[in-house]
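=== Per-residue structure ===
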Amino acid sequence: MNKEKIHRNPLKGNVVAVSKDARTLKVEIPRVICTPKYEKYLKRVSKIFADSNGHADIKIGQKVELIPSRPLSKTKFWKVFSVKS
C-alpha cells in the first residue's frame, strides 16, 4: 500500500518572482469570473507566496502546482507540490 498523501485539486500557476535564496516563490493563480450584471467574462489573478519545498531549480515563468500547508511565515501558506516546464 502506498503511504503518500492524496491531495485533491492543487492550485496551478506561474512563477512570477523568486527570492535570493530560492526558498520563497511568488506565484500568479489565474481565474475567470463572470460579471453578474453584464455577463462578461473577466480575467483575474491572485498572487500568493509559496515555499519551494526543496525544489531548488525553479525559475521565473515555470508552471507549478501548490498545496496548502501550515503557516510558514506571515504570508506563506502554500508549498510547491510539483514543477512543470
In short: The chain has no helices and five strands. The CA atoms of residues 15 and 60 lie 5 Å apart. The mean pLDDT is 91.
